[in-house]
Design goal:
Layout lengths: L1 H35 L4 H8 L7 H8 L8 H8 L2 H13 L1 H11 L3 H12 L8 E2 H10 L4 H16 L9 E2 L12 H7 L15 H15 L8 E5 L15 E2 H6 L3 E2 L12 E5 L7 E3 L1 H9 L3 H14 L3
Antiparallel strand pairs: 1-2, 3-5, 3-7, 4-6, 6-7
Length: about 325
């Protein structure tokens, strides 16, 4: 019995030592690569000075995302809560001129800018508490999606190296996104905008930069102005449910020929030649989705998220 206890204790210590050595070697490799990419050693060392291990909570969140546990309507109604909608209406009213000017420039919908802003950080009120560097390093260390987050980590270090953001401000939610629109560092690098012209793409404090960055990103993802996003539909009793998939694309008129009907919508305003898919997220409702729904899914690859963004956009603007 005593020998077994000592053996277990030895194995625990050995496992812990191995894990610590593995992490140290991983960080040492990151440091060498970062310096080779032009990151100053002192910038890297400051970023990692308080990071001694992977963040276990980040790993847990990565494996238990909400879509795997709740229905679509539960997700939508909790994220797009009445309080968040009411605040959104107030924020749109307060920032209407700026929002409309930016939306017009980028040819995107101002209500969707506001909805994304609200869903990501409650209109800039809650930008997250996690160190972006530790989150990205943790996910880069993990084998599941390591190369993706390793690349994001170097973009984040570049932001620090260039003085675009302070280490103190470089915080976000668990997956390494940051700022009021919760951009990953690569998204910030490629699509953030210095709208107010102060020399910084400040998605943490400047509303102009925040709104323009969201709009610019939507535009580059393929947003089509004056096009529908999604419409609730009803299905005939004999409908082939194998067709309920984003992979199945037909024109609106082809769906209508299969018996799909719009629920309480003026069908004359819809181009019958528009390509669309019909889906039914867990728990419903059944929705016909168009290009702009897919654009939102490029922002966050989740039908739950895309559906919630559009729902809240319409609620905020009381359409």
């Amino acid at each position: 019995m005593i020998k077994r206890v000592w053996l277990l204790l030895f194995l625990l210590i050995a496992t812990s030592v191995f894990a610590q050595t593995s992490w140290r070697n991983f960080v040492a490799g990151l440091r060498s690569e970062a310096i080779a990419k032009g990151i100053r050693p002192e910038v890297f060392d400051e970023a990692f000075q308080n990071i001694k291990a992977p963040h276990n909570e980040v790993l847990r969140f990565d494996r238990t995302q909400p879509e795997k546990r709740i229905t679509y309507l539960h997700y939508r109604n909790s994220r797009a809560s009445q309080d968040r909608i009411v605040i959104g209406r107030s924020e749109v009213k307060k920032n209407r001129e700026l929002l409309n000017r930016i939306a017009s420039h980028y040819q995107v919908d101002p209500c969707f800018i506001a909805s994304l802003w609200g869903l990501e950080t409650s209109y800039g009120r809650f930008m997250g508490k996690y160190s972006v560097i530790q989150s990205l390093a943790t996910l880069a260390y993990d084998e599941r999606r390591g190369p993706i987050f390793r690349r994001e980590l170097f973009y984040a270090l570049e932001m620090l190296n260039n003085g675009d953001v302070s280490l103190q401000d470089l915080k976000g939610e668990w997956a390494g996104a940051t700022g009021q629109p919760q951009f990953l560092p690569s998204t910030w690098h490629n699509y953030a905008v210095d709208y107010d012209g102060d020399g910084h793409k400040d998605i943490w404090r400047s509303k102009g930069d925040v709104f323009a960055s969201i709009a610019n990103y939507l535009s580059h993802l393929g947003w089509q102005a004056n096009q529908p996003w999604t419409i609730e539909v009803s299905l005939p009793a004999n409908f082939d449910r194998e067709l309920l998939s984003l992979k199945t694309v037909k024109t609106v008129s082809e769906w209508e020929q299969l018996g799909v009907r719009f629920s309480g919508h003026d069908t004359e305003s819809i181009n019958p030649q528009l390509p669309a898919s019909v889906i039914e997220p867990d728990g419903g409702p059944v929705m016909m989705v168009f290009n702009n729904f897919r654009v939102i899914m490029k922002w966050n690859h989740s039908t739950y998220y895309a559906g919630t963004v559009g729902y809240m956009a319409h609620q905020i603007c009381q359409r």
